[in-house]
């Protein structure tokens, strides 16, 4: 099969022929229909993730059709159209048994712990625990994006921060994750304030539901905080999301909150940041992480998508082939402000 591989961290990936995978006893092999190009793939390629063994095939957001099934799989069959969370749970550890497979201690992650979906075929483990059936009518790009960006944003807002209709949501950083959060917040009835340094990103945020947008380029922390407070209603910011992963963007999200507000950290940091803990203590703020979502919690998200209240496919700005992935991965690594979402059509 064809796969995009890299032989060293930061070494240019190449498209080459590699052996096809076989299913593990509790796993399946899926023929990839579409897969997202995510900034997490860049982090893995640059060597920021422990556990990647070289040579490696990245890719973790996907939709496709099962082509082979392990002997212990009971809920899925060859021919089923499926997606999966990027964190695949074991189903038996204490975290999984408590319903928190997204932090499974034995988790596997396509594109990180084993070869991923930038290929014709991908192996997925513990299928009965992790696979999600996808209707034939659902757009392939929309289905692929449910594996990481939308699931992580949805869990952060709904299951972690418990965002309510009528509350005010601040989203800092309007890349793929941030725009997912904007779109989900608007679908849930929140008033969304979006912050970025790029006019095009802010225009996208407005198009996908942000009531107010704020260009923070050139502003100090004090100035950006004042601008957010001016843009927010008098009741203040109820929930904030840092979708970028920088010390300044996380601080802006936390410091913008009203007392007892909730901050959700989704953006990944290259190193541990300094967090304004005095504000957290003084305001009794909640600082929450979101590390994906277990398959069992997907029905609420899928309902928003299948009823049309949430349209992930509208965020897709580029569809590329497997042959174009090496250039796209390198380009994304060089531009943290790159906006819109790229999806790979493996059939092209």
From TrEMBL:
Q: Name one Pfam family in it.
A: ADH_zinc_N
The protein's UniProt keywords, in alphabetical order, are:
Metal-binding, Oxidoreductase, Zinc
Domain Enoyl reductase (ER) stretches: 8-343
Keyword Transmembrane set for record: no
A GO molecular-function annotation: zinc ion binding
Which prosthetic group or cofactor does it need? Answer: Zn(2+)
Q: Its domain of life?
A: Bacteria
| Gene3D superfamilies per the UniProt record, alphabetical | Medium-chain alcohol dehydrogenases, catalytic domain
Q: Which InterPro entries match?
A: ADH-like_C, ADH-like_N, ADH_Zn_CS, ER, GroES-like_sf, NAD(P)-bd_dom_sf, Zn_alcohol_dh
* Record keyword Nucleotide-binding present: no
Please report which protein family the annotation says this sequence is part of. Belongs to the zinc-containing alcohol dehydrogenase family.
- The name of this protein is Alcohol dehydrogenase
């Amino acid at each position: 099969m064809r796969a995009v591989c890299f032989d060293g961290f930061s070494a240019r990936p190449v498209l080459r022929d590699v052996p096809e995978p076989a299913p593990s006893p509790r796993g399946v092999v899926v023929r990839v229909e579409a897969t997202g190009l995510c900034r997490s793939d860049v982090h893995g390629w640059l060597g920021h993730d422990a556990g990647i063994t070289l040579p490696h095939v990245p890719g973790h957001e996907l939709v496709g059709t099962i082509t082979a099934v392990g002997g212990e799989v009971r809920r899925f069959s060859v021919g089923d159209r499926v997606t999966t969370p990027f964190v695949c749970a074991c189903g038996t550890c204490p975290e999984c048994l408590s319903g928190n497979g997204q932090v499974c201690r034995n988790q596997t992650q396509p594109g990180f712990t084993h070869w991923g979906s930038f290929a014709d075929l991908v192996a997925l483990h513990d299928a009965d625990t992790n696979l999600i059936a996808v209707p034939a009518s659902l757009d392939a790009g929309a289905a692929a994006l449910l594996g990481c960006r939308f699931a992580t944003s949805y869990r952060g807002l709904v299951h972690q921060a418990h965002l309510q209709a009528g509350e005010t949501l601040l989203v800092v950083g309007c890349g793929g994750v941030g725009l997912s959060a904007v779109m989900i917040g608007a679908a849930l009835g929140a008033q969304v304030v979006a912050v970025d340094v790029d006019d095009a990103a802010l225009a996208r945020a407005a198009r996908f539901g942000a009531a107010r947008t704020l260009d923070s380029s050139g502003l100090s922390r004090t100035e950006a905080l004042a601008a957010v407070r001016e843009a927010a209603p008098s009741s203040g910011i109820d929930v904030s999301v840092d979708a970028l992963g920088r010390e300044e963007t996380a601080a802006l999200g936390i410091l913008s909150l009203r007392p007892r507000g909730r901050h959700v950290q989704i953006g990944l940091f290259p190193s541990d940041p300094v967090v304004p803990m005095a504000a957290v203590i003084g305001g009794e703020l909640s600082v929450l992480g979101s590390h994906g979502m277990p398959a069992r919690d997907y029905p609420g998200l899928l309902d928003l998508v299948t009823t049309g209240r949430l349209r992930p496919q509208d965020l897709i700005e580029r569809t590329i082939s497997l042959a174009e992935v090496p250039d796209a991965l390198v380009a994304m690594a060089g531009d943290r402000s790159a906006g819109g979402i790229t999806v790979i059509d493996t059939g092209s």
